[in-house]
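HUMAN: Would you supply a protein with fold tokens?

ASSISTANT:
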Amino acid sequence: MFTGIVEELGEIVAVENLGDASRFQVRGPVVTEGARHGDSIAVNGVCLTVVDTGDGGFSADVMAETLDRSSLGALDVGSRVNLERPMALGGRLGGHLVQGHVDGTGTLIERKLSEHWEIVKISLPTELGRYVVEKGSITVDGISLTVVDAGPDYFTVSLIPTTLALTTLGVKQPGDPVNLEVDVLAKYVERLLAHGGTDQDKKAIE
């Protein structure tokens, strides 16, 4: 489980084609420190398993399913990526509960510059629209963000200077793809109601 608080802006240093998968070599000395084979690291919001570590980086295998369903398939040597280690039990939940399981991809539509922040508009697959609400949480490329405006096929977020400086959203341009993960709590609520939750359950949700 992750929190959506990016620890480090890493870089893809090599991509090896394995046929039905790819092996990424990722530079990220902060998240690699203490990492071992089998550990998890989120790369642009996708939970990947560490294969090997060394020289301030790690390698991870990405299967075709993940490449097809996320924006990782668009990464190449030199691409910058958001990196986060899993939250330690008892640690602070700085963002919100993030699984590292991408629900879909969106596209950055536009950026509006303000004096101290930016408003970014991102397209949203229509099937995910029911999970996104104003002032709710959403994960974009592994970053926990608060939704400003929610439409049927888009949403907007406000980015403070720290987010712009320390994550990939500082350099993403209109047309660039992003990974999206909606709030898992919304999906559990929907599932509960769809399968006839008790009156007590429904009252608690209301």
Notes: DSSP finds five helices and twelve strands in the chain. The helical segments are 29-32, 64-69, 161-166, 184-194, 199-205. Residues 8-84 form a domain with the Elongation Factor Tu (Ef-tu); domain 3 fold (CATH 2.40.30.20).
